[in-house]
Specification:
Oligomer: single chain
Structural class: alpha+beta
Radius of gyration: 13 Å
Length: about 100
């Protein structure tokens, strides 16, 4: 298993678009990618333009398959104010 957290800043006028695009993509990802266990979005309480995408995959191959099938990725990029800060994570046995 592996996890990913992507910290993303959104252009101030694109929040509604970002949330709609992510929700549509989330539905499609969870329905069509059996190796994707979670694909969730959280918004910062301190800065409403900062979001965290929290993703979990069965393994690295599932993550790579997810990356290869990035439908809607261009629309998401258009909402971002800069590059995402991505952290790759390994589970801690007995805690995940």
């Amino acid at each position: 298993m592996m996890g990913v957290i992507a910290r993303v800043r959104i252009h101030g006028d694109r929040q509604a678009d970002w949330e709609r695009i992510f929700a549509e993509r989330r539905e499609r990802v969870l329905a069509t990618e059996p190796g994707t266990l979670a694909y969730d979005l959280l918004r910062s309480q301190d800065d409403p333009l900062v979001y965290m995408a929290v993703e979990r995959f069965t393994d690295r191959d599932a993550y790579l398959a997810h990356r290869a099938g990035s439908v809607g990725h261009e629309a998401m990029l258009a909402c971002m104010d800069g590059d995402p800060d991505i952290t790759y994570l390994d589970p801690v046995p007995g805690c995940w």
